[in-house]
């Protein structure tokens, strides 16, 4: 692989994946790697991934029609096709599946195309001199990634994970964007089952690892919060003694992981026992401010992002900047340039002076609690109204987790609770059990919630809308903006 031109030879692909050339030109050179036939371009290698909804093997000819120079397929796909028509094709000559193509096609095969995609990314990453920071945690990964990239960007050329390309497909696609000009890569790692962070770490080969926090999330795949801890700890296992871990000292389970880690640890938190610490100062509709400190240096930082969680995210990013030898002023400048992402504590004002907090990107018990805390700090004397959809992937803990959210809504004095989804009744049960008046609670579909809200809102009200990604709670936000 030549890093500057970002081209791949057939030899590169076979060396990286341990695959075999089925047929085609051994001297071919690929311009890029694609997993989506709709966006495949001339000169690409198309890797056929079998996903939950679509199987890339069904789109091989589409990829060729769009200019793909070759395809990487699964061995079992080949074995299911019709046998070769002649001894020549069986011995390495022209092999094909489906109609005879108009031109020679290049095919390579591997046991597992998803693994091969990661192996290709790992191969390419190791051809560079880039430093890599990998970020994981239950909450705040994406915001921390954005802030870290903004901080490092004050002094370095940085590649960062686009959007939420944080899984076994998205991470390799991110790494394919590395070029010889990049000095740092800031990567987000997500998981919903044991072993995923280990595999993502193997692909990214990070020098620094950040764990933002460990809370109840993706419990369906890891059973309980200690399972979350073990899964996130896979990042530290990969770093080993030569790596650096940037860890939240205020999180008890993160501290437990730190005790096992043999490499360099940089701690962050909201007290001076951390190596990089912050003292919250204020929170307004326009953002949060805190005093950032390390050693004997301190500076006031004003974030454009809301919530206590944003301060922790900023401290994690600052700790990476500190480890990268940036000045505290450079870190401040980077943090203050970061902006809120869509669906993450976005504040807008509806007609009639009604304030809306859109935090619909995702939800788990910890992020919901932080969002409610932020709502309470912002509403002042206004009414706080909480709209909640289901929190997904909680497995056997789902019932109790939703009940606890209802209890929290009642105890924090919400003037209205609007619940939708399969667990709406459980949320309502928790709220009423904690003393919330039945008349303040509404259960219905997203559309019914919107209609009910429109008839009950008044000037000065504050509405928080939250739910897991699959619940599409952004449709409630959209509905509130549509006039009757």
Quick gist of this model?
By secondary structure, the protein is of the alpha/beta class. Helix content is 36%, strand content 21%.
Strand order in the sheet with the most strands: 9-10-8-11-12-13-14-15-16
Which of globular, elongated, flat, extended, rod-shaped describes the shape? globular
* CATH class assignment of the largest domain: Alpha Beta
Annotated CATH homologous superfamily of the largest domain: Mur-like, catalytic domain
Tell me the distance between the termini: 58 Å
Rg over CA atoms: 25 Å
Average pLDDT taken over every residue: 91
The CATH architecture assignment of the largest domain turns out to be 3-Layer(aba) Sandwich
The CATH topology of the largest domain turns out to be UDP-N-acetylmuramoyl-L-alanine:D-glutamate ligase
Strand content is: 15-25%
Describe the structure.
With 484 residues, the protein is of the alpha/beta class. The chain has 3 domains: 109 residues, Udp-n-acetylmuramoylalanyl-d-glutamate--2,6- Diaminopimelate Ligase, Chain: A, domain 1 (3-Layer(aba) Sandwich), CATH 3.40.1390.10; 210 residues, UDP-N-acetylmuramoyl-L-alanine:D-glutamate ligase; 136 residues, Alpha-Beta Complex (Protein-Tyrosine Phosphatase, Chain A), CATH 3.90.190.20. The strands form 4 sheets. A 9-stranded mixed sheet has the order 9-10-8-11-12-13-14-15-16, with helices on both faces. Strands 17-18-22-19-20-21 form a 6-stranded mixed sheet, sandwiched between helices. The protein has a 5-stranded mixed sheet with strand order 2-7-6-5-4. β20, α16 and β21 form a beta-alpha-beta unit. About 4% of the residues have low confidence.
């Amino acid at each position: 692989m030549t890093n500057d031109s970002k081209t791949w030879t057939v030899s590169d692909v076979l060396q990286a994946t341990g695959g075999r050339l089925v047929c085609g030109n051994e001297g071919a050179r690929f311009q890029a790697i694609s997993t989506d036939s709709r966006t495949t371009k001339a000169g690409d290698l198309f890797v056929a991934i079998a996903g939950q909804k679509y199987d890339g093997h069904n789109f091989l000819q589409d990829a060729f029609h769009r200019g793909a120079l070759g395809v990487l397929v699964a061995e079992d796909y080949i074995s299911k096709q019709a046998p070769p028509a002649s001894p020549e094709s069986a011995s390495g000559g022209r092999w094909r599946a489906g109609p005879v193509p108009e031109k020679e096609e290049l095919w390579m095969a591997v046991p597992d195309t998803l693994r091969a995609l990661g192996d290709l990314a790992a191969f390419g990453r190791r051809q560079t001199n880039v430093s890599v920071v990998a970020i994981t945690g239950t909450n705040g990964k994406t915001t921390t990634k954005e802030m870290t990239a903004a901080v490092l960007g004050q002094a370095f050329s940085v590649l960062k994970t686009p959007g939420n390309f944080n899984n076994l497909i998205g991470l390799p696609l991110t790494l394919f964007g590395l070029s010889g000009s990049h000095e740092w890569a800031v990567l987000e790692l997500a998981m919903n089952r044991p072993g995923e962070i280990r595999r993502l770490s193997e692909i990214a080969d990070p020098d620094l690892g950040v764990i933002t926090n460990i809370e109840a999330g993706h419990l369906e795949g890891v059973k309980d919060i200690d399972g979350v801890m073990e899964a996130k700890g896979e990042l530290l296992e990969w770093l080993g003694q030569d790596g650096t871990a940037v860890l939240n000292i205020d999180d008890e389970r993160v501290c437990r992981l730190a005790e096992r880690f043999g490499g360099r640890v940089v701690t962050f938190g909201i007290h001076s026992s951390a190596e990089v610490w912050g003292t919250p100062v204020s929170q307004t509709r326009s953002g949060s401010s805190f005093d950032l400190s390390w050693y004997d240096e301190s500076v006031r930082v004003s974030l454009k992002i809301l919530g206590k969680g944003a301060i922790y995210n900023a401290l994690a990013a600052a700790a990476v900047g500190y480890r990268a030898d940036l000045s505290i002023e450079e870190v401040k400048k980077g943090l203050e340039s970061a902006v809120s992402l869509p669906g993450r504590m976005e504040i807008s004002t509806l007609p009639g002076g009604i304030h809306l907090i859109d935090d619909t990107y995702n939800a788990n018990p910890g992020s919901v609690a932080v969002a409610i805390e932020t709502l309470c700090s912002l509403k002042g004397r206004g009414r706080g109204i909480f709209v909640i959809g289901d929190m997904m992937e909680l497995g056997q803990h789902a019932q109790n987790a939703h009940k606890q959210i209802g209890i929290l809504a009642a105890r924090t004095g919400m003037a209205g609770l609007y619940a939708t989804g399969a667990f709406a009744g459980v949320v309502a049960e928790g709220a009423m059990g904690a003393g919330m008046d039945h008349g303040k609670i509404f259960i219905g579909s997203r559309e019914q919630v919107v209609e009910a809200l429109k008839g009950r809102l008044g000037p000065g009200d504050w509405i928080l809308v939250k739910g897991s990604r699959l619940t599409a709670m952004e449709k409630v936000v959209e509905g509130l903006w549509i006039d009757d």
